[in-house]
Structures are given as C-alpha cells and as structure tokens.
Amino acid sequence: MAVQKKIAVVDDDKEMSNLVKDLLSREGYSAVAYTSVSEALVGFKKNPPHVVITDLNMKDIDGMMFLQKLQTDYPSVVSIMMTAFGSIETAIQSMKLGAYHYIVKPFKNEEMVILTKRAMERVQLVTENTFLRKELKKEFSIESIIGKSSAMLELFDLIKRIAPATANVFISGESGTGKEVVARAIHSLGSRSKKPFVPINCTAIPEQLLESELFGHVKGSFTGAISDKKGLFEDAQGGTLFLDEIGDMSLPLQGKLLRVLQDREIRPVGGSELKPIDVRIVSATHRNLRTMIKDGKFREDLFYRLNVIPVKVPPLRERTQDIPLIAEHFIKRFAIENHSRVRTITPAGMAKLVAHPWPGNVRELENVIERAVVLCPNEFLDEKDVMGSAVESARETFQELYTDNPTLEKLEERYIKLILAQFANKKDAAAKVLGVNRRTLYRKEREYGLVSEDSKEPTEDSTED
What we know:
Blueprint: E1 6-10, H1 14-26, E2 30-34, H2 37-46, E3 51-55, H3 63-73, E4 78-84, H4 88-96, E5 101-105, H5 109-140, E6 141-142, E7 145-146, H6 150-162, E8 169-172, H7 179-188, E9 197-201, H8 207-215, H9 232-235, E10 240-244, H10 251-263, E11 265-266, E12 275-276, E13 280-285, H11 289-294, H12 300-306, E14 309-312, H13 323-337, E15 344-345, H14 347-355, H15 361-375, E16 380-381, H16 383-399, H17 408-422, H18 427-434, H19 438-447
Parallel strand pairs: 1-2, 1-3, 3-4, 4-5, 8-13, 8-14, 9-10, 10-13, 15-16
Antiparallel strand pairs: 6-7, 11-12
C-alpha cells in the first residue's frame, strides 16, 4: 500500500529550510519549506505532511511546543528535530515527548537522507498497521483476539452470544492461549462493560493471603492487618471478577468460594458482617478439572457452579491457519514500537512458524516475533531469524522450569510440555525420552489440560507418523 511521501521542513533560517527542502526534493519526496511554526500550521490544514523536520530553537514557537502541538493535532505525523550541538540533551527530551529522532547541525546530506528514509519507513509501517487493524476488525478479530480459522470464528460467535448474559463462564485452554483476553472480551461486550473488570491469578498469590484478597479483611484479623481492606469481590461490584488458574485454589478456599456463589454474600476475614455482592464470575484454568475432581483435588459442586457456560480456547497448533495472520500483526506492532526496519516475513520464515508446535501458544509466538524484530537488521524476517528466536525461547522455558520453586507436579507438567515442543508434538518420540508409554503420556496430558477432553486414549501399541 503506497504512501505519498510528503515532507514539511520548518526552520526560521530560510536558507536552511530551503536547503533541506531542495535536498529531499532531489530524493523524490514532495517537500515544502516553512520559516515559522504559525506558517506551517496554516499550511498543514490544506496539505498535512507525513514527516515534519523542524528546528528546535525558533523565534515564534520553539520546537518543543511545536512537537506537542503536532502530537495533539497530527498524531500520525513522524517528526525529526534539528538541533545545534549544545542542545543534544533537549533533543533527547523531545524524543521522549514523541519525536522519532534528532539530527545535529551541521549535518552531512547523506545523514539527513538516511534519517528521512527511515522516518518515512515508519510512516509506512504505521499506515499498514492501521490498515491491518481495520481489516482485522472487519472479519478476523473480536476485541484483541485474532483468528480466521473455523475454531476461532466459532469462538467469536460464542463470545458475542454469551457476553450479554449474567451466567458464570468457565474458560479452559492451555497456558498462553489468551484466556484472560477472552474473559475481557466477554466483559467488554456485555451489559457490565461500564463496571470494573477485576482479574486475579490464583497461583500468583500465597494461599494464606488469597482469602483476604478475595473477600477483604477487618483491622486486627491477622498480623499485618492494620486497617480494614476491601476484597476483590467488592472491587468488582456490578462488574466481572476473573479468577485465573482456579485449579490451583486450595480445597478449603474452594468451599468458601462455593458459599459465596450460592449466597451472593461475602464475609471479610475476621469480620462478622455479611456484604451482598453482584458480580459475574469468569474463571479459567489450563488444568483438567474433571480429572482433578476424580482425584479429590477439586470440588465437583464448585465446578458446576463455575461451569455454567463452558468456553474452550484452542491451542495454536490446532489452528495453524491463524499463525500467518497473528505473526504479521505482531511484526507490524513490534516494528513500530522498536523503530525497526522489518516490514514482513519471507515465505520460508512463515513456513517455519507454521510448522512449529508452539507449546507456549500465542504468548510464545508473540515473544519470538518481538525478539526477531528487535534483532533483525533487514526489512524481512527469514527462517534463521524466527527459528533462532524460537530456540532462545525454548532455552528460557527450560531455565524457567524451576526458577519460581514449583511443586513437583508443576515441574512435571512444564517438562512434559518442553519435551513435546522439542519433538514437534510427536507423542512416540516424546514418550520415549520421558521414559513412559504412550498411554501414560496421554493420561498426563489429560491431567494437565494439554489435550481436549474428548480426544481418544491411544492403545498400548499405537504409533504415529
């Protein structure tokens, strides 16, 4: 999508403004010179530019004030500040306020040409990203979720249908599939959208503090309770409370949560007063709660209170059709954020992305693309760029297996996912490395929510390609 390359040069030194204008005109740009900010602002109303090259110190309005005006009235304009050597600190400050870059006077012509070219590339990226977002909104996205596979289109339809309701929603799916994004979409499209969306990760908070976080506490109820504190149920009043990784909640706390869901009332820790609540509960986990129920690790009665409307977020490996769409979205986004020259990805690079099993799902793909965009010096990502980043991501995953002192069960889950990723989800090879048979591996996958509940258990002698 071509962008007409319009540039405005603003400098109260007429000789300098004309010099830069003529230089860039010879490079094929449509350049206009202005000798004051006020003159430029009048001209912009008729002919807004894509890139503004402005002096920092001018008589009528200085460059910093001009930059702030541009950010307000012309937010898509990319600006370059020209400054004398002694004002470099101020020029750097201008970048913090939104300028793309600065150039020090006196400068070489080729410096100005190169910097202008990069600024125009940024304009192109911003334009393409804006276009991409509009196209995605037309058909292939809902809120921040992207996809065009049949599984994702069905998910979009389900979200739209359940959002206006008040019934509790239970979201299942592997880590990194975007369960919180789905929860936010359900909230923002529903009747509670103007009320708070309050998320909490049940794994991230120590068990002894989780009850206080959810229900609040009264002063003196435990050591450190120096004042009354509202809980997240009260914070979410009228809105949505998102309980992420609810499968990690202890059995005693599960019982208290069940009572709250039944009575629609909470009692703060150490308190005697019951408080009515009006909150929609959206919960999520990557675990298989039905297996946990059989093992006595999760309450069946709580499960049915939470699982009024089940929503399954498919893993990325089961919707490879969406990978090119998501990858291009991340490339455009991270190129803009990191001032990168990267524009797109080669077919060979995309083929590598599509073939990768993505055990970390969309979150892993996002990390791989960001790293590749930052490190790549070219305009196109190639297979070596993305696979190098994928290998680095796998190494980080291995290092993170134990850094947070996980339980033995959590460590086993992470290691199984890592081995499956290394062998591209080939179960026979993974089972051999893990030292178990295929059926044992399958049961572990079911337990940790790595396969769908309706998938068939393999026979002892089953093989795969």
